[in-house]
Design goal:
Blueprint: H1 8-21, H2 27-36, H3 43-50, H4 54-64, H5 78-85, H6 87-102, H7 114-134, H8 142-151, H9 156-163, H10 165-177, H11 181-189, H12 193-204, H13 208-216, H14 228-243, H15 259-265, H16 270-290
Helix pairs in contact: 1-9, 1-12, 2-3, 2-6, 3-5, 4-5, 4-16, 6-8, 7-8, 7-14, 7-16, 8-13, 8-14, 9-12, 10-11, 12-13, 14-15
The protein binds fe (ii) ion (FE2) (2 copies).
One fe (ii) ion binds next to helix 7.
Length: 292
């Protein structure tokens, strides 16, 4: 077996450098997220922020006028579009769009295919939110569930970008040894996407459930924070996405979350049959929105 060509010291330095240069969320997206988190926000407030960002305007109108919504007449008025789509949809899509923006465009990366990674992320975000909805979680909290799911594996981006060929060795070793990818990363590279994710959480100042999910989603037993429900939902949604091969993020042999976690969520298998269709629809919707 070929071993990695990079020293541990070089790896740590290069990853820190990559994270420093990673674009953080664009200002317009941060503002949209802030506004969406405020219950007093009106469509006119959102219109003001979105209209300053031509790419976002284009995406919002493109989504609403896509076949997905089946409207008889084209809508070109942004305020009307915001009202019709709803604030939550705008928020989800602004975030997905920001994540797309930070994904490397370079096709030469060998470790993970970014299209598959993006589908996996979107699937876990959507499934986490749907699970929460099924269980009667307060609607005001659902976006937090979505974001935590969407971003859980973000630590893989610097690993894939900095290491490329060496990251492929980690992915291949997970396959060969039939072990979860985070374990193969530790064995092969001496780090993991959760450790790298923690560095992104620091750099982006992402406290709370989203940051905690990025760091602890493979280590729930060590988690001591207050957001067990979100982390548990992400862990189960992550297993669902890998198991049904909705997207691909390098994990063919993920650990099944333990019984205690499934019991705490009080859901049966039939819930997954129900959400699979919606997850696929949501991915299609986001695809239309993101390919402008
Ligand atoms: Fe992960
Ligand atoms: Fe994942």
């Amino acid at each position: 077996m070929r071993s990695v060509s990079i020293t541990q010291e070089d790896l740590t330095g290069k990853i820190a450098e990559h994270i420093k240069n990673m674009p953080s969320l664009p200002t317009s997206v941060s503002k949209v997220l802030n506004l969406c988190g405020n219950s007093q926000t009106s469509p006119a407030d959102l219109n003001y922020v979105i209209s300053l960002d031509p790419v976002l305007v284009g995406r919002v109108l493109k989504l609403l006028n896509s076949a997905y919504y089946g409207l008889d007449q084209r809508v070109t008025n942004l305020v009307r579009a915001i009202i019709m789509l709803g604030i939550n949809t705008i928020k989800n899509l602004a975030l997905s769009s920001a994540i797309m923006g930070i994904l490397p465009k370079d096709k030469r990366y060998q470790g993970l295919d970014m299209e598959g990674f993006w589908r996996h992320s979107l699937c876990v975000g959507t499934a986490t939110k749907l699970l929460a909805k099924e269980r009667g979680v307060d609607p005001k909290q659902l976006e937090e569930y979505f974001t935590a799911g969407l971003l859980h594996d973000i630590g893989k981006i610097p690993l894939n970008a900095v290491l490329s060929g060496d990251y492929m060795l980690a992915v291949a070793s997970a396959d060969r040894e039939r072990i979860p990818l985070y374990q193969a990363e530790s064995k092969t590279l001496g780090t993991s996407h959760c450790i790298v994710g923690a560095a992104i959480v620091n750099a982006w100042h992402l406290p709370g459930p989203v940051g905690e999910t990025i760091v602890y989603h493979h280590d729930l037993a060590r988690y001591r924070g207050a957001h067990h429900d979100i982390l548990n939902c992400v862990a189960v949604a992550n297993h669902f996405a890998s198991d049904r091969e909705l997207g691909f993020s390098g994990d063919r042999y993920p650990v099944k979350p333990n019984k205690r976690i499934w019991q705490s969520l009080e859901i049966g298998d039939e819930v997954f049959e129900k959400i699979e269709k919606t997850v696929n629809e949501e991915i299609e919707k986001a695809k239309v929105f993101l390919t402008i």
